[in-house]
Design brief:
Shape: elongated
Helix content: 40-55%
CATH topology of the largest domain: Rossmann fold
Radius of gyration: 19 Å
Protein name: Hydrolase
Distance between the termini: 10 Å
Organism: Kibdelosporangium aridum
CATH superfamily of the largest domain: HAD superfamily/HAD-like
Number of strands: 8
GO molecular function, one term: hydrolase activity
Largest sheet: 6 strands, parallel
CATH class of the largest domain: Alpha Beta
CATH architecture of the largest domain: 3-Layer(aba) Sandwich
Order of helices and strands: EEHHHHHEHEHEHEHEE
Strand order of the largest sheet: 5-4-1-6-7-8
Keywords: Hydrolase
Strand content: 5-15%
């Protein structure tokens, strides 16, 4: 059983968010702080709001508005809110950029393995990205969850009667994809993405033999 993360594993995601954030920090034109000083403030606001606003474009827009209010010590005007939304039009439209080699690799893997998709975020938003990706037919089932922690993987294994020892979670996020699935007893494949969200970064144990490290998605065909 191969379980695939979606954002930044099957298609680019965080790089789109990073472009919006970069444009937002330029748009802020803060009088005393540069972008390197502003970014940690936004990161802290995002970290604090995960439990209440979750993930995705709606969450980002909320966090951008809150960052503006925090820095300028006032509410965002209707016009400023509209301008912030214009910066994020790519995200709001749910445009999908597949990572190189994904369709062909999934096509071949599906001839010899059971494939699942496990993605977290806003249900409607993630479903729209899945629909636009054209990849849904490769997977026996698709699961959209609010969070990917060890309990999520344990619950999925219980619901689907998975043999965790023969189940592999494939993704780019050390925190959500690798460490959480390993804590639930699964194996994992780490395929790094240079644009992985900073809040998903974590340290991986290089001595953990249950984690396979690959350079690119197409390398899966050499191992499965």
């Amino acid at each position: 059983m191969l379980i695939f993360d979606a954002d930044d594993t099957l298609w680019e995601n965080n790089v789109l968010f990073e472009r919006v954030i970069d444009d937002f920090l330029d748009w802020l034109a803060h009088p005393t702080m540069d972008k390197a000083q502003l970014r940690p403030i936004l990161d802290d606001i995002e970290r604090a709001n995960i439990v209440t606003v979750g993930y995705g474009s709606k969450a980002l827009l909320h966090n951008l508005r809150e960052t503006f209010s925090h820095l300028y010590e006032r509410e965002v005007s209707a016009e400023e809110s509209r301008q912030i939304e214009e910066l994020a039009v790519t995200l709001i439209d749910h445009r999908v950029e597949l990572i190189e080699g994904v369709p062909d690799t999934l096509t071949e893997l599906s001839t010899r393995h059971h494939l699942l998709m496990l993605t977290k975020g806003d249900t409607d938003e993630q479903q729209r990205k899945i629909d636009h990706s054209g990849l849904a037919h490769h997977f026996q089932s698709i699961h959209i969850v609010a969070e990917k922690d060890p309990d999520t993987y344990r619950q999925l294994a219980k619901e689907l009667s998975l043999d965790v020892g023969n189940t592999w979670m494939i993704g780019n996020s050390p925190k959500s994809d690798i460490l959480s699935s390993r804590a639930a007893g699964m194996n994992a494949v780490f395929i790094p993405n240079v644009h992985t969200w900073v809040l998903e970064e974590d340290e991986l144990d290089p001595a953990d033999e249950g984690v396979l490290h690959l350079e690119r998605f197409t390398d899966l065909l050499k191992h499965f």
